[in-house]
Amino acid sequence: MTRVVRLAAGSLVIAAAVLALKLGAWWVTGSVALLADALESVVNVAAAGAALVAVQFSALPADANHPYGHTKAEYFSAVLEGALIIVAALAILHSAWGAYVAPRPPEDAVVGLLISAAATAINAGWAILLRREGRRLRSPALLADARHLMADVVTSLGVLVGVGAVAVTGRLWLDPLIAALTAVNILWSGWYLMRESVGGLMDEAVEPGLLARIRGAVSASAEGAIEAHDLRTRHAGRLTFIEFHLVVPGSLSVDDAHVICDRIEAALKAEIEGATITIHVEPEGKAKHHGVLVL
Predict the structure, then answer these.
(1) pTM score, two decimals?
(2) Of the ranges 29-43, 48-62, 152-166, 237-251, which is most confident?
(3) Would you say 79 and 197 are in contact if contact means Cβ atoms under 8 Å apart?
């Protein structure tokens, strides 16, 4: 079992435990804001299950039907998680409206808040771990889960403050208001997550900073060549695909051109973990006099 799969399995266990705690907090208090918080945790459980399946599938090696591997499976998990977040937000808004029309004071607020605070602390610790490991392992599914959990933490903190204010002031309208604000925050989180994941599925180019590093590595390691042009990049999960045309002097032998390509590939792989490189060698007559000029 890989590190990514173990973390995804851990997320499922943590999500189930946090859901149980938040449902307990809602059951004790009857607060619609705490119910909203629990509904988001239902999404966490479903999303964690989808992420576990996705990372297991993405770990499969390339085969005849999937020559580029299965790493994009994690993006499907992230898109599904974003969709589930939006569904949860709509359910929360429905519950908030019902509580606004027929408000009721929370019961045993102190006990409920303590239970919810414990669940929030667990979520926060796990989100920090997932974000660190997701970046290190370059896993879209883990990063999506971390971002969702951190949004859940922020939401839960707002809910705790809101329910506490209701208990102290007796202003019952604060409970559905906090629930509605929670839904808006969740909607934003879900939209951002889906937008980022769809970008991966649509083969968007790498971010400008990484592109500059790629260009710099090619320029510094391509001694003997003339230029590199038609540079194309894309992400696929933890892999970064890099393709370009390398122009060399027409008198250069195939062996010598291959040595240059090997040197460039080694430099790119040292600079970018998970780089998969394709280089098309062309004679100097194909130079376009733009792109990456060799130092």
Answers:
(1) 0.60
(2) 237-251
(3) yes
